[in-house]
Amino acid sequence: MRIRCGTRAGRQHLRSPGLTLVELLVAVAMLALLAALSWRALDGMVRARAQTEEHAERLLVLEAALGQWTADLEAMTQPPFTRGIEWNGQVLRLTRTDPADAGGGLRVVAWTRRIADGRGQWLRWTSAPVRQRGDWERAWQQALLWAQNPDDALRRRELAIVPIDEWRIFFYRGDAWTNPLSSDAVGPAAGTPGAGAPADSGVNLPDGVRLVLRLSPGAGLTGTLQRDWAREDTAPSMRRIMRSYFAGMAALRRGA
User: Fold this and answer.
1) Which pLDDT tens digit goes with each residue over 179-189?
2) DSSP state of 256
3) What is the CA radius of gyration of the chain?
């Protein structure tokens, strides 16, 4: 037996409700828009997190490098017929005690800025342990060659730190900060390391060393950094002023 719905209202009641093609397209477009907005927000969060991690990592590297810089200066020494420290406008060389040798061994340490891949890089180099005067003289000369035109053997002893655009060095002598290129006249003449220097005279050692770094932009950190160091036997008032961690630092901020 067949049942027929003869009325128009009955036929409409039996018809299944649904979405038109236009409504379906509008819903799909809204879902796509929400997905795009969500992806942009997620991508922004990932980028911000990556920049924060890069900033924190470079800051830790910079802090470790400044700690090593201070350790080198604290261990600086000038045995007979050697130079304690020298700055020629390109490389800072110094003689320090060897922390791994309790028997009085020495190392020559050098710091410089070198252009690599189109940007300046702050670098540190250290020699092998030295005990004889001839070994020290070779290490002292190697440090200079490393800063000018290093070969592969010299490069293996270097450590890249952070990108910098410029760096400057000042020595504290005669109650004033001075240019080492002009204030180093009291030390042995260049090219004749330690010539005429009496034993343990400390004639070449300044009372303080000022480091000024201009960090490269876009490297997680940027700005100008100043680090002062003073010898232990300097006046306490001067030492308190110079030992501030970032005395006179203009800015350290996140890179763009």
Assistant:
1) 998 754 444 44
2) -
3) 33
